[in-house]
Amino acid sequence: MITPDAPPPEIPAATPFTIAGRTFDSRLIMGTGGAPSMDVLEEALIASGTELTTVAMRRVDAKAKGSVIELLDRLGIDVLPNTAGCFTSTETVMYAELAREALETDWIKLEAIGDEATLLPDPIETLEAAEQLVAKGFTVLVYTNDDPVLARHLADTGCAAIMPLGAPIGSGLGIRNPHNIELIVENATVPIILDAGIGTASDAALAMELGCDGVLLASAVTRCHAPGLMARAMRDAVHAGHAARHAGRIPQRRYAEASSAMEGRID
Amino acid sequence: MIGGGLMGAAIAWRLAQRGREVTVVTGPGPIEAPGATAAWASAGMLAPVTETNFTETGLLDLNLDSLRRWPRFVDELADTGADPGYRTDSTLSVAQSPDDAARLSDFADFCDDHDLTTKRLTSREARRLEPLLSPRVRSALLVEADVSCDNRMLWSALIHAATTAGVRFTPGEVEAVTTDDDRATGVRLRTAEQVTADHIVLAAGAWSGSIDLPVEVPVRPVKGQILRLHAGTLPRLTHTVRAFSHGQEVYLVPRHHGEVVVGASVEEMGFDTRVTGEGAWSLLRDARQVMPLTAEYTLNEFSVGFRPGTPDNSPFLGPSGVPGLTLACGHHRNGVLLVPLTADAVVEHITDGRLPDCAAPFTLARPMTARKPRREEEP
Fold first, then answer.
1. What is the DSSP string of chain A?
2. Do B210 and A65 touch (CB under 8 A)?
3. What is the tally of structural domains in chain A?
């Protein structure tokens, strides 16, 4: 019998969040774009509990004083450099190499954009860049469309994690095609991280309920009215969604089923 | 006075008015990177309302206070024979796409919640006020409080006023603030020359964090690329126009003499003085989307300036914790606007030994996240 003092059940320990041999307690990866100030960003990062945060290499000078890199270092959060803003595989590979040199990390979040209005990933350039980066010894976490076939190709290429979008970057539209995300998860051979499109906490929870291993988000926190509070909400949502996934949800039914059985009641 | 920008010149002028002997060492900024000071590069918006955001309501109060000081400040400058190019034409904030309109509407709600007076306009109403706007402007917000000045004229005006009042300007690159027994006693220049003073004021803009100081002052350069077009004989804007344009932000600030300032990028690139293809192209593109006639204007200048950024985007005013060293730096996006208040507050701190209430929340000792104990935010 569970007493009121008993600790709450834990999520099975058999499911640590591991990417390329590195294990994380937090399944929430943060981005830094859009924060109104360094101070607000810091508050949000702390509240999110994140251990890994992505930074656009085109938009920061890693050596600059007071930079976001310095902030992450002070908070003990690992930097995941990304290639945001790149269109071609050539640019993408070049920025990955710059990041490796500047930050002394082999990890790269690969992002090759195919269209400026939607910021949707270019599948051809993405696959091309993934092949080159894997060959050069990078640990590649790849931003991709919610296409299960492309996701399989990218995993076969040797990417360390597949990061399908829920909706276009910064749109806050949530997960527009949950079925595709489920298909990607079902066939996964590497971790799946829902990246882009998260608008609010329920979106992050849904990603985890669909079976994603983690969630990456930025705008939903950095551009909202109270970033620290939303970061905390996202942390809880990712945790809740992950727990719900492992708790084994009930089947959905067309008709009601009383939660208390009707038989044997005292009249 | 370390720094001969807007803050340095204004504070020096005010101190001289009170009978103080002031020497302004004008470096390091203008010497290392001519023209890259915020005093020269910026657009001169006096815009507490359109510059605010959801997380900076404390700074908003400071900015509004300084705005109220502007008319008298301009009159006093005029008494010295100088003209800072102050104009009272209001600001139109416009939206292009439906997404931009939603964002502008969200901002208008925020203004309502904080008793900031704005007026929502339809596209046609906005274009009656400002006929050069693109018909594709979908909605607008008229912000009467937000006005502008010509920051380059302001800078000249302040240097003129200060010089007339007896302030000495001397070129030099300050390397360090020297101390004796924990009190600031002067500065050491890159040439190893020493200058001693009873009181030191740090007003070195984006370079304030690069000087060897007895206390850490977290100021970093935030790069902005900005351009200047000229109308020539073509029709001109009258309002400052700020736009959300397909997810980007751009502003156009008109000058009496026909120039329009278009800005600006926000980049964490250290002291990178390059104008880039992306920087130039996106400003021209966004300006043209908001006001098609900009494509016909003369392109006079592309430049780069450095905003003095701080961790919470607010300035450091008054005591530094080190006797003899006063701060007037870190004004980030609101430097031009905050000139009158900064000068008043810092002068009062130096001459009367007390910082006015309006500036008290903006000392270096204020809590910033970096210094707060870690906590989890709960509703």
1. ---TTSPPPPPPTT--EEETTEEES--EEEE-TT-S-HHHHHHHHHHHT-SEEEEETTTB-TTSTT-HHHHHHHHTPEEEEE-TT--SHHHHHHHHHHHHHHH---EEEE--BS-TTT--B-HHHHHHHHHHHHHTT-EEEEEE-S-HHHHHHHHHHT-SEEEE-SSSTT-----S-HHHHHHHHHT-SS-BEEES---SHHHHHHHHHTT-SEEEESHHHHTSS-HHHHHHHHHHHHHHHHHHHHH-PPPP-SS---SS-STT---
2. yes
3. 1
